[in-house]
Amino acid sequence: xxxxxxxxxxxxxxxxxxxxxxxxxxxxxxxxxxxxxxxxxxxxxxxxxxxxxxxxxxxxxxxxxxxxxxxxxxxxxxxxxxxxxxxxxxxxxxxxxxxxxxxxxxxxxxxxxxxxxxxxxxxxxxxxxxxxxxxxxxxxxxxxxxx
Length: 147
Prior knowledge:
By secondary structure, the chain is an alpha+beta fold. Helices cover 24% and strands 29% of the residues. The protein has one domain: Trna Endonuclease, Chain: A, domain 1, CATH 3.40.1350. The protein contains 4 helices and 8 strands. It is globular.
């Protein structure tokens, strides 16, 4: 099998659908925003609570890190799901790391360029913490949903 290399938008779409599928499997109602809602990829609801979800994906462990515009996390109560698709090894299921907005702000690091609003979180760091992987119960524990 030849090496798979996805376009940036393919990675994003695949990750959003994987997260939507996983949350649906866990009994949540999920709406994909299809880019129509800035900084929100999914609207997730259960038990009359609705949550805004931002999904960020990488293709493989070799991708090193997730990048984002940190201003999109400010002043928003958002749940972030980071996905490693493992396209380099299709027999391995995608990995999911679920963070609240305060956790994401704490874990993501500023890029080295001064004045940049970009921030990143590397795969090895979050994987090594052993506390965010498949943490879907964040939706049950999160108080005061966004909507």
